[in-house]
Design a protein that fits this description.
250 residues; mainly alpha; two-stranded antiparallel ribbon; 69% helix; 2% strand; disordered C terminus; transmembrane; Aquaporin_transptr; water channel activity; transport; transmembrane helix
């Protein structure tokens, strides 16, 4: 029974519609990472001391807000507009997508991030691709907690912003998600980097060739995303589930 179920689940993950969803995730994640990492590189080029200059933090936060709002919007009707392995994980834990589909989403998102960072590296020639790092006064555990809290807020916003029960407010869901991301960067950028997105941290680390503290940007966000999905579906709306057609079931 288990092999048959797995085969059926896998077949559903390689349908034409599913393949279009993976492509949508690749495109959206590519442009999101390109904008966020590119903004960090731009601030470093324009400012003599971008590390301590507050305007650099604001610039990256704005890039996060605009880029995430836009990329979520353009992919929402095709793939759900996850643009983030943590969001995909939260959706899988909540039972909104299958595990096999989530794995294909991850491949699309991770490869898109690497490609975006590689393009930035090749195009700028003299500039190094910045990686996410934690502040010297923080521990890896503390940084993971911060990233987990940020991911909780982001994934909760994704759940709420895409919920048909929100009525007309659902149309501004991508904007709300982007604003949550931007606010999180402003709050945690100097401490953990404010990634909230394992693909974002992974792509820059691969191209830069430095993986120090990379676990921080996986463990924290994945746990926070899972908790957010479980809380939204089982605490805020217990016993209710929104189907793909927008109907509410038990």
């Amino acid at each position: 029974m288990a092999p048959a179920a797995f085969t059926s689940c896998f077949k559903q993950s390689v349908t034409p519609g599913a393949l279009r969803a993976y492509l949508a995730e690749f495109i959206s994640t590519f442009f999101y990472v390109f904008a966020v990492v590119g903004s960090a590189m731009a601030s470093r080029k324009l400012m003599s001391d971008s590390v301590t200059d507050p305007s650099s933090l604001v610039l990256v936060a704005m890039a996060n807000t605009f880029a995430l709002s836009s990329t979520v919007c353009i992919a929402a009707n095709v793939s759900g507009g996850h643009v983030n392995p943590a969001v995909t994980f939260g959706m899988a834990v909540g039972g909104h997508i299958s595990v096999s589909t989530a794995l294909f989403y991850w491949v699309s998102q991770m490869s898109a991030s690497v490609m975006a960072c590689l393009l930035l590296k090749v195009a700028t020639v003299s500039q190094d691709v910045p990686i996410y790092t934690i502040a010297s006064e923080m521990t890896g555990f503390g940084a993971s907690m911060v990233e987990g809290v940020l991911a909780f807020g982001l994934v909760y916003a994704v759940y709420a912003g895409g919920d048909p029960r929100s009525g007309p407010l659902r149309s501004i869901g991508p904007v709300v998600i982007g604003l949550m991301a931007g606010a999180s960067v402003l709050a945690a950028g100097p401490f953990s980097g404010g990634s909230m997105n394992p693909a974002l941290a992974f792509g820059s680390a691969v191209v830069a060739g430095r993986f120090k503290n990379q676990a921080v940007y996986w463990v924290g966000p994945l746990i926070g995303a899972a908790v957010a999905g479980l809380v939204y579906d089982n605490v805020v709306f217990p016993g209710q589930r929104v189907n793909s057609d927008g109907a509410t079931g038990v």
